[in-house]
Amino acid sequence: MNGTDFKSQLAKECHLTQREAGAIIKGFIKLIKKELAGGGSITLTGLGRFYTTPYKRNSIITPQGDKLEIKPHKVARFNPCKELKRIVASEA
After folding, report:
1. What pTM was computed for the model?
2. Which of 35, 48, 31, 43 is nearest to 82 (CA)?
3. I want to staple 35 with a disulfide (CB 3.0 to 4.6 A). Which of 40, 49, 65, 86 is the partner?
4. What's residue 92's pLDDT?
5. CA dist 48 → 1, 6, 56, 84 (Å)
6. How many whole angstroms separate alpha carbon 13 and alpha carbon 17?
7. Distance between CA atoms of 52 and 10, rounded to whole angstroms?
8. Distance (Å, whole) CA 92 – CA 82
9. Residue 1 CB-half CA count within 13 A
10. How many angstroms separate the CA atoms of 41 and 31, rounded?
11. CB 78 within 8 A of CB 43
């Protein structure tokens, strides 16, 4: 399902216009980005948890023998709730 399909389904499910559904999706994404950029996390019951994981400075050696320095950074993560894991697993 792509973004347009998702917006259409959301509009039907919640009895909204396409424009209203699009605004809700954009707002949802904006709030998640803002919270994660600030180092926070968001837990949505029935869906899961969005959070960040910090990575320390590191150096690696490539297969060519070059040494690369990895700067400290954060990575966005998502951990689905047990119910979502169960539903996905039963669909396989």
Report:
1. 0.76
2. 48
3. 40
4. 59
5. 19, 18, 26, 8
6. 11
7. 27
8. 16
9. 8
10. 11
11. no
Per residue in 10-69, pLDDT (tens digit) is: 999 999 999 999 999 999 999 999 999 999 999 999 999 999 999 899 899 999 999 999
**Helix residue spans in the chain (DSSP H):** 3-14, 18-37, 82-91
Q: Quote the CA–CA distance of 41 and 35 in Å, as a whole number.
A: 6
Place of tokens 């998502």: 78
**Which amino acid does the sequence have at 55?**
Y
3-state helix, strand, coil in the chain (%, to 5): 45, 30, 25
CA distance 74 to 88: 28
User: What are the start-end ranges of the H helices in 38-92?
Assistant: 82-91
6: tokens are: 């998702």
Structural tokens at position 9: 């389904």
